[in-house]
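Lesson 9: reading folded outputs for more than one chain in a single document. The general rule is that every protein is listed as its sequence immediately followed by its structure tokens, and records are never interleaved. Here is the first one.
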Amino acid sequence: MINDAIAKSYEAANYASHAYEQSFIANLHARARLRGLNPKAPNSAKVLEIGCASGGNLIAQALVFKDAQFTGVDLSKAQIKNGKTALEKIGIKNIDLLCLDICDATAHFGSQKFDYIIAHGVYSWVPPFVQKAILELCSKLLSKDGVAMISYNVYPGWKFKEITRDFMRFASSDVSVEDEPERKLDVALGALAFEQAFYRTDETNDSYQLVTRQAKAALGMISHLPRHYLIHDYLELCNYPAYFCDFVADAQDAGLAYVDDMQLCFDTKVLGHEALRQYEKASFASRVQKEQMHDFLNATAFRHSLLTLKENESALKLDYKDLEFSGLFIGIKAKSQSLKERSKNCASHDLICALLDAYPGTISCDEASRITGERLAECIFELISKLDVALCFSSVPFNAIKYEAGKSRIRADYLGFLRFLASPENKNFVLCTPKNGVYALHKNDCEAVFMMDGRHSKADIVAHFVELCQKNNAAPSRIIDGKKVLIESKKEQEAYFDEAISTLISDLEAQCMFESIS
């Protein structure tokens, strides 16, 4: 019965279907390899996603790895139907979407094995018996060297959020999340807004109000989040955060071993703090205990845990000095030229210069080893702990390709996806990039993107849109001082579209959306 209620609420308020970089199988493969495991290469892997919504997290991966086979399961019939329609329109053949209860999935797949299992945004939002079924599914359906990625809400960070969630649910208890999710959210946010306004004007300053006052003032922190996220994270019947150490213990009971986290969820500079390292060494014996300590110190609220079969645990490389880099690729997630200056006196300076030059592409770890000599692991630790650089490890390379007529074009394998995104049939899909990230490409931008076919220069594209405005007696607009101002002169329109197209091209270059013309 509870699963029926969950399915109904997700059909009433569809979750946006898009990609998550932390679940990109090239990244899962690389992180597992770093830790000494040997999962199957992504280009021929079998992948299962639990709670796939409409398949948005699989589309880019299927486009990149055309010989891999992807299967997605979800409890919502509406989501699966929407996903199948999208896949047919896009023309993707290597994704299969199934409407299936997680508790029935192990029996459904029988003796089938998967090299990668993904469960993003599911585990904390189902009751404990379904959580147990997810872990058992991973244990029984993973291939011998396979890995699973499960994301979930964690304590202590969610302890504070729970006060907000509980108040929102209490204030909107007369409205059903299954029948009227949007109205329920409006009532809940209205209650938070009242609390926030009340605490601004109340001068009693009773000390016992301190914690609730801080927590209930969360309106400013959550009001910018997508409404579908707020409905399911803050108003849904199920939301069961767990301490990291308890999650690992449950995984071990199911026959699984913890490998790594796909995204550090705290200030990485604490990793290099000598006093903290000494306390950690003296007080906690296991890696899990040490990570749990960091969660306490940083109020961690979310994790992406990578798991493997328990029989593989003895092969894990637990010390960063022993990580296996050979054959992998490394890149930075965001470019900051200040890094060159800040790293001048660091052992990792030459490496960060190479990574900045390659951005948004990658360099091979073999090349990184040549740059750093015998100190690659040390330099990587320095980049993370001292310079707070967000790194990405991948099992496939990415190249920095700029758009230039005659030399490059928008990726041909993405044309079907882009046409679907621009169509009226697209309701809740966004552009999922080759790195399995997300880019908010507006439908109105798609016409410009289609012109980036290697035959049209940026000047050609700008001229096209200026000509359209002149021909149709139309004008773009800007918001100036809160007012909509039309850009009517041809010269101003040329400057407007030049800026807009330049920004779009730059964004698409950063997302590795171009390919060279052979």
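And here is the second record, again sequence then tokens.
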Amino acid sequence: MRLEGEALVELLASPKSVAVIGASADRTRLSGRPLDYLSRLGYSGALYAVNARSDLPGVPTVRGVSELPAGEVDVALVALPAAAAVQALRDAERVGVRAAVVIGSGFEDRGAQARQELDEFVAGSAMRVIGPNCVGTLGVPAASYLTFSSVLQNEIPLPGRVGLVTQSGALGNSLLQTLIRRHVGLHQWFSTGNEVDTGAVELTTGLLALDEVEAVGVFLEGVTDPAWLGRLDEAIRRTAKPLFVLKAAQSDSGRRAAAGHTGRIVGSSDAADAILREMGARLVSSIAELADALVLAGVGSKLAGSPRPRVSVVSVSGAAGVIGADRVAQDGRLRMAEPGRGVPLDPRLHFANPLDVPFIGETEVFTDTLVAVASGSDSEVVIGVESSLAHEREELVAKVSTAATHQPIVLTSLSEDDQIPVALTLELSRAGIAYLPTVERAVAAVAAVAAQETPEDDDGAPHPPVDGDGDAGELRGLEWIAQALPAGLPWARSRVLDKPMDHAAGERAAAELGLPLVVKAAGRTIEHRTELGAVRVVRDPRELAEALPVVGEICTRHGDALMLQGFAAPGFEVLLSVLDDPEFGPVAFVRPGGTLAELLSGQTAIWHGWDADRRVDVLRRSRIGKLLAAYRGGPTYDVVRLAELVGDCLDAVGRDGLQFLEMNPVIVHERGLTLIDAVGRSAVVTHPERTP
């Protein structure tokens, strides 16, 4: 039976038996480290070594994979060159191995024989494969160290309730070291490498399902298993566990680097951010933010409370307190607590938030104040800022660690270069007090860990059109787009003239449509009509007589047809873009359209994986949804019909050769809507990593 999600994660967390294929007795070699870790660091299951040349001391050794006891090995770690790895996997499957971790490289080139053989094996096998080109996996409680991580040579992680998934092995190795040194208990870490079979989304979904895991951190370059996105969405909502995601490859250069490093196809950063936020993932912007969030979730788990928790800052420095207060005020996920009048304070202090405790050499006053504020009911988290200049750190840590407070404390220092010693931060961690380097990083971590409110659309600067230029195919105009979409959509009435200079035909078409109307290029070859002067508003016969030859000549020169189009009833103008994203599949972006497109910021992303009700809900919660819902006493526009149009376009993109389309404007009326114009591109690439 093929293991998936939670079952696969559980197997790798605590396999009853492991075989290391290509094992070496030399613990300094990459092929020797996994066997050394499993033998020395506490793994209690059955352990086998496969070595073609010699027996390895202390471990049952066989010469070939086929000599392993049939049905007795749960997991194989394959430490062989690419040329030999695939045959080892075939042999492992024949003896009943259920999952394999392939740490070897040499599979990056999709056209190479070894990679093609590996892809063929995975496609026809029930055995799950992690990797290749990964650092491996580790399950801490059972000491299931299926990895060559350098960190384990000197340190091992504490068992805990945090999960970690990283597509980059080197970055994951660095995060593992950070979590160990900052005393964060870890349940499992997966380095996923090239993801020929098992992707980061599936493993993340499996980790969230475990009762033993309370928070998960993910470093994601590109989604290779989009079929799991719906289940991840459901898992985040069902468990309400924090999922922290650092999504890399946000720029064009970053996407190119990701493709070169891992072979993954990486899509639109706008799509990824919007979809992950709507799912409930907490996006972080740096490795430090990811580590800090995991520290806070893993050590100070009491913090996961209500949305927008009230924060108090107690600081030895007035300046640091102001900085902390500014950061809280600037983050919509937090709010400053009102100063508690009932808190017992040193008579030299005054009720305030932030609360300045500027006494040098009076550690007891600082700790008493910090504990008093955290014992009150006015705050939901208290950030304390200490300094070696003012405090005796052993005394501070001893008192804070033994105090019983109602609210969690996050302790920080004035400077990253003046940190509390590691031994003392271990004492803090055991007491459930997270220590972070600075007040700025503490505020950011508190915001990431706090319960998240339902997201709205992006508040940032106007976005450039999502035009799919990275994989641009043949430009297609309104006529072709209309044929690709369902029949019966409410297009504005129009007539197309294949002979743009046939003015008599133009006059007949105008008579059928009635004035006023628009004379413009049909869009078969001309994408930006305004720039060429290929669009004219016509209100009377004189303007029609002037417009037909001018626009007709431009269309003739550029090989386009001429279109006459009737006016639509007034309404709210919307720009709708839909692209076939290589990671997430079809994604729609809705933003203000027409003359507002370049003036109003904010866009709403809608993913094809959401059902009709979810699409309507996302639209209504967005900024544009609020504008459509009787904003400031104005009309209520037809959001449901707009959501239906979005669904029609999502269904069409990625099918019948349509890779991207943009409608601008879509005029939304109080009842119904009218489609004015559209442009699109036909597909010229496939997405070989997308799972059907």
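What the second record shows: Residues 253-266, 459-471, 685-692 have pLDDT under 50 and may be disordered.
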